[in-house]
Design brief:
The strands form three sheets. Strands 4-3-2-7-10-11-1-12 form an eight-stranded mixed β-sheet, sandwiched between helices. Strands 5-6 form a two-stranded antiparallel sheet. Strands 8-9 form a two-stranded antiparallel ribbon. Helices cover 35% and strands 19% of the residues.
Length: 314
């Protein structure tokens, strides 16, 4: 069993704002309890593509970065990876920085040092083994902005995902924390943009999901287990943030979840999406992916537990 802390979206006011809620969540869940003065702390975030209109506002990230700084007395390293396709034919590093800055993601607004996960090229990283039986990958390259720090907080803007089912703690804390060429290796030629064609055959999809989960094991190995996860159930769209557009969210805003266990966290996230979509499974309906199977596979590979205990507050 693993505790999953949930601060819902009820009772919003000037005295109970998003920042207040996130800071209470951090205190209750113990998200920063293992941090010490002088530690270098990475905060993996999700930045949106130009045209995607539901990205998290900077305050959602800043509230966490400020709490990290209070303990470590150092600015957090906030990072994301470059997108896999550069629609405008620009240098990827420039395109990433310009797009992110235009959406308000800067050092000042985020209260930290905002970097590309894998360096300016997106492909700067260190290799770490994937420790599981019959590994398909053997090892993975983790972005330097993450693997060269002392601890990692994974902040996931939860969305649906056309290949993985749900973009949450497991995907953002694994696949999305790898360097660009490593993510392309895991995809094995699969087009991650389903609007450019139909979904891949089931065998290819299953293989990608297994390899993406192995990527998570590599990141956890890089951080020697010093990782914590927060899921933002806010503007949960059918498309992930790397898409150049976004349709309307599939559920109301449900607040914020936190846990040291990514499988337990994504399990509760998935359950809430179904609970607030009566009579349907929005993940399956929109993506065709059986996310319960993905969760079971992740648990089987030792990523976490399928037996969460929810601790809720407003």
């Amino acid at each position: 069993m693993a505790d999953v802390f949930w601060v819902d979206s009820n009772g919003m006011s000037a005295e109970n704002s998003i920042s207040h809620k996130l800071k209470r969540l951090i205190a209750a869940s113990g998200a920063i309890e293992g941090l010490e003065e002088g530690m270098r702390v990475a905060v993996k975030i999700s930045t949106s593509e130009d045209g995607y209109e539901y990205g998290l506002r900077p305050v959602f990230i800043r509230a966490v970065a400020e709490e990290v700084r209070k303990v470590s007395e150092k600015a957090a390293i906030l990072c994301d990876g470059v997108k896999l396709i550069d629609y405008r034919g620009k240098i990827k590093g420039n395109a990433f920085q310009n797009t992110s800055n235009s959406k308000g993601y800067t050092d000042t607004t985020l209260s930290g040092n905002f970097l590309i996960n894998g360096g300016f090229s997106g492909d700067e990283g260190n290799s770490y083994p994937v420790k599981c039986a019959d590994s398909m990958l053997g090892g993975v390259e983790v972005g330097t902005a993450i693997c060269r720090t002392d601890a990692l907080l994974v902040l996931s803007h939860v969305t649906l995902h056309p290949l993985f089912g749900l973009s949450g703690a497991i995907l953002n804390g694994g696949f999305e924390s790898l360097i660009c060429k490593e993510r392309l290796r895991i995809l094995e030629g699969i087009n991650p943009y389903i609007f450019s064609g139909g979904p891949p055959p089931k065998e290819q999809l299953d293989r990608f999901q297994r390899r993406a989960i192995e990527g998570f094991l590599g990141v956890r190995e890089a951080m020697e287990g010093r990782v914590f996860y927060i899921n933002y159930l806010w503007d949960v769209t059918p498309e992930p943030e790397y898409y150049p557009y976004s349709n309307l969210p599939v559920t109301p805003n449900l607040g914020f979840l936190a846990s040291p266990d990514p499988v337990a966290l994504d399990t509760v996230t998935y359950a809430l999406l179904r609970e607030f979509s009566p009579g349907q499974d929005p993940v399956l309906n929109h993506t065709g992916v059986d996310f319960s199977r993905v969760l079971s596979q992740a648990a089987g590979l030792g990523v976490g537990t399928l037996d969460p205990v929810i601790k809720r507050s407003s």
